[in-house]
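About this split. The held-out portion is used to measure sequence recovery: a designer receives only the structure tokens and must propose an amino acid at every position. Recovery is the fraction of positions where the proposal matches the reference. Here is one held-out target exactly as it appears in the evaluation file.
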């Protein structure tokens, strides 16, 4: 565990139901900006969230524009297109509205518009610190935590590689965390996002870069997910549960941003990119097997996870608690109807053919080095294969 840590968070966080109403006040607090560019996807335009933000900004004296071409798993190409819109329109700040894809793209546009526009210049282990344009993050899903992290995930379109670029430059200036913006999301997205949140918390808690600060965020994240995930999945109109999952996503983002993700995310990124598996769902497919692989190297930490989620009792010893963690994660996948690799429709022969490539990309991310048990390439390939039998 690190003894000292530099904590990176948005300067302003507006939290609570209907907090999007304060977007003008938040931008005023950011200061020095007049023409924000809203970066979002066409769905946010269709359902009116982007337009609502635009009208609120117009009513408070700003001149906003909208760039709505973000797709799931954004590429460096779409970021470059957004930068062209930003410069042509003489916009002076960026507002990301949507899921992790829109917020990640907005963060990249805010930074790369002022510096290199080649994503490979930001590739790990590089960390980038020079500030970009002011950026406000407004999540409409409860999972990625991108509104509080110093990570941005993009696909390098030429190679197809999913790259996590990072550094303090990518921490939003402000975040508006309004759980009511998530209420229209379907059950599938509730489950996938919540498992992403849970994975952030577990990985942060067992990470070799963990701290007392990240531990607290991680444990509270796990508790909130454990208490509210099944409630929200069973009854998506349960506002109390949805608000709790939104807060959990933010806590989880703070936890992993200041401790690091490790093996699950390292393996999930290439698998999701190659086979178009939603990120949270991909994490769910991998989480149990990665935990089985890692657990003996940090049994006490994984036991704490089981107790925090509610799978194990406080009185359970570590051995019992770890067993309950593994069975609890398996049960989540059943209750939340997480598909297997096969039932999702991935071609097994193709999956096995690219397993070595996926393992190589996982290792190149650097994240497996933070895992309690550091795997080699062959061990990662075996985990990919083990997921096929689940």
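Reference sequence for scoring:
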């Amino acid at each position: 565990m690190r003894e000292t840590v530099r904590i990176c968070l948005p300067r302003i966080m507006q939290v609570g139901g209907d907090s999007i109403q304060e977007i003008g006040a938040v931008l005023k607090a950011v200061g020095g900006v007049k023409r924000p560019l809203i970066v979002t996807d066409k769905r946010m335009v269709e359902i009116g969230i982007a337009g609502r933000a635009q009208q609120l900004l117009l009513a408070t004296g700003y001149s906003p524009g909208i760039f709505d071409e973000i797709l799931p798993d954004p590429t460096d190409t779409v970021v470059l297109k957004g930068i062209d819109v930003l410069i042509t329109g003489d916009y002076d700040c960026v507002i990301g509205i949507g899921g992790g894809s829109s917020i990640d793209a907005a963060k990249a546009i805010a930074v790369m518009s002022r510096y290199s526009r080649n994503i490979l210049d930001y590739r790990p282990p590089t960390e980038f610190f020079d500030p970009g344009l002011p950026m406000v993050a407004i999540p409409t899903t409860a999972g990625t935590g991108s509104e509080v992290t110093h990570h941005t995930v993009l696909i390098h379109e030429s190679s197809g590689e999913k790259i996590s670029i990072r550094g303090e430059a990518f921490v939003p200036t402000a975040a508006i965390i309004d759980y009511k913006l998530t209420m229209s999301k379907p059950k599938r997205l509730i489950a996938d996002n919540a498992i992403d949140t849970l994975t952030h918390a577990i990985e942060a808690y067992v990470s070799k870069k963990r701290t007392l600060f990240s531990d607290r965020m991680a444990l509270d994240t796990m508790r909130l997910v454990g208490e509210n995930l099944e409630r929200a999945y069973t009854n998506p109109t349960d506002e109390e549960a949805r608000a709790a999952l939104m807060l959990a996503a933010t806590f989880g983002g703070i936890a992993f941003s200041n401790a690091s993700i490790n093996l699950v995310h390292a393996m999930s990124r290439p698998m999701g990119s190659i086979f178009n598996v939603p990120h949270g769902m991909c994490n769910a497919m991998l989480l149990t097997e990665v935990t089985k692989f890692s657990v003996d190297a940090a049994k006490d930490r994984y036991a704490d996870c089981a107790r925090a989620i509610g799978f194990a009792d406080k009185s359970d010893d570590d051995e019992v608690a770890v067993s309950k963690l593994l069975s609890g994660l398996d049960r989540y996948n059943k209750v939340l109807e997480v598909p297997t690799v096969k039932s999702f429709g991935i071609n097994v022969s193709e999956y096995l053919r690219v397993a070595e490539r996926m393992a190589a990309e996982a290792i190149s991310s650097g994240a497996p080095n933070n895992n309690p048990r550091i795997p080699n390439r062959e061990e990662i390939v075996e985990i990919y294969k083990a997921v096929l039998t689940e």
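Annotator remark: Residues 18 and 178 are 6 Å apart (CA to CA).
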